[in-house]
Amino acid sequence: MAFTFQINNDVKFRHDEVLLAKAEANRPEIQHLKVEPGRIVDVVEDSTKLNGYWVAENGKQIEKLKEYGLRRDESLILDFGDHYVGRFQVDIDSVGSPMDAPLMLRFKFAEMPVELVQESSEYNGWLSKSWIQEEIVHIDELPVTLAIPRRYSFRYVEIKVLDTSPKWQAVFSSPVLTTESSADMTKLSKVTLADEQLQKIYDVGVKTLADCMQDVFEDGPKRDRRLWLGDLRLQALANYATFDNVDLVKRCLYLFAGMTTEEGKISANVFVKPQNVPDDTFLFEYSLFFISTLSDLYKAHSDQMLIQELVRELYPVAKTQMDLTLTMIDENGKLITDENYPVFVDWSNDFNKDTAGQGEIIYVLKQFIALATIVGDEQREKYEEKLTLISNYAREQLFNREQMLFVTGDNEYNIASQVWMVLSHVMTDKENNAIMMQTVKELFPVKDIATPYMYHHIVEALFEADLYKEAVELMKYYWGMMIDLGADTYWEAFDPDQPDYSPYGMSIVNSYCHAWSCTPVYLIRKYLLD
Ligand code: RAM
């Protein structure tokens, strides 16, 4: 894992109030549901589940919750039966002698059982421990209805009594979760698949997307709870195939377009609370994917006049991203990467990303030229020439015909280079097919990749290269394994060779509902149904 913090606090940003007002006008309505827990459980060891933990009923009945008085260090775990995002509330009272000391409680909110086992005091990872979903509360007077103010992302809630007094116990009743999501389930177009495993993979993808649809397309409702452009691009594609909330995509595009650097560069992510603020983090292709997201929106809804107008309105912002990127191309058409503006591709930095980055430019430049055509940009030809130059460099300097693979860095052959070149369609369909066959033969199985983001692109490249069987196999292997390990929603990080791996040193801060992993929804709709 080598994704690191960037600190660029000398960068100056512009706020375009007109665009930001439009972002505000497209703010979604948050939908609410009341959900009650279905049972009381214990965490149990189970080697077939993630990190070796699962849950099982412990004989306590949820209907009799109020009868279970808890003393110092006693706890119970409520299971809501599925993953949700929202706020938790519970009624608390005391039984026994008068309440002669405050009640001290700890609440833990967990997406996966492993989070209930790990202790926050032992966390020493590089991401803030403030992400750990835990609350310590003191209560002076009972009875009370305690509504935890913070939004949490969870299936399980552990209530632990840290202390009462030897004279009385705490009792709990009417626990309820009020959900939050901007996904409108009534808009969901149902999909029925003959293959049961694919159906499950699809359904969990929809749930993942729905729980990440908040005030913006969040990357993860547990963490980082913000709008990342790389995640947005994939969420938007999955969204067109399901909820089709166009306004939410528009809101996110306006937010990025409304807060660029003074030179016009779009940051990798933005915050929207308590006010709109762009992060001082920049990733090469995340900026470029503004163009892709605009282009994908157009493709999904080109029949709508309003979308055509939106493309015209945001085209200058898209053009600036392309112009800034083209300054990184040398006279031969080679991308000269810059470590201060890293090519992302995947969290791992253990492989060279130059050729993958070159493929990404070609991929986006084609989308950009299509947009230039729509708006009638007179400079379109200039971009066509650049495309030829960059594509020729890829075909002539980076493609090794003997190996039938793209090279990168110091004579390195990696999966990411093939995948992005195939996705860019810089080669013919026949060549793409041969490249991915060669990739499967020489570079598979996929190793040391822990992001569903990268797996998504590998699967998509297999589909694009007409290797449907291999694509479905990999999708079932990767996302199917998460389901087998207990996923209600897909995870931010997952390496099938080391399922317990956390990029942060401890899985208690892992996000187990993460937007960039929802894409089987899009892949299944695009390649297996439409
Ligand atoms: C992590 C998050 C986010 C992703 C970035 C690059 O911080 O998982 O979703 O886009 O990495």
Task: Describe the overall structure.
- Helix content is 38%, strand content 17%.
- Helix 4 (229-240) crosses helix 14, helix 6 (284-301) runs antiparallel to helix 7 (305-326) and helix 7 crosses helix 8.
- With 530 residues, the protein is an alpha+beta fold.
- The longest helix has 22 residues, at 305-326.
- The protein has two domains: 13-29 and 196-529, Glycosyltransferase, CATH 1.50.10; 34-179, Jelly Rolls, CATH 2.60.120.
- The protein has helices at residues 17-25, 114-117, 196-212, 229-240, 246-258, 284-301, 305-326, 354-375, 380-398, 415-424, 429-442, 452-464, 468-484, 520-529, and strands at 34-35, 39-45, 53-57, 75-96, 103-110, 134-139, 144-147, 152-163, 168-179, 227-228, 269-271, 277-278, 399-400, 405-406.
- Strands 1, 2, 3, 4, 5, 6, 7, 8 and 9 form a nine-stranded antiparallel sheet that branches.
- It has 14 helices and 14 strands.
- Alpha-L-rhamnopyranose binds next to helix 4.
SSE layout:
Elements lengths: L16 H9 L8 E2 L3 E7 L7 E5 L17 E22 L6 E8 L3 H4 L16 E6 L4 E4 L4 E12 L4 E12 L16 H17 L14 E2 H12 L5 H13 L10 E3 L5 E2 L5 H18 L3 H22 L27 H22 L4 H19 E2 L4 E2 L8 H10 L4 H14 L9 H13 L3 H17 L35 H10 L1
Antiparallel strand pairs: 1-9, 2-3, 2-4, 4-7, 4-8, 4-9, 5-6, 5-8, 10-11, 11-12, 13-14
Helix pairs in contact: 1-5, 3-13, 4-5, 4-6, 4-14, 5-6, 5-7, 6-7, 6-8, 7-8, 8-9, 8-10, 10-11, 10-12, 12-13
Bound molecules: alpha-L-rhamnopyranose.
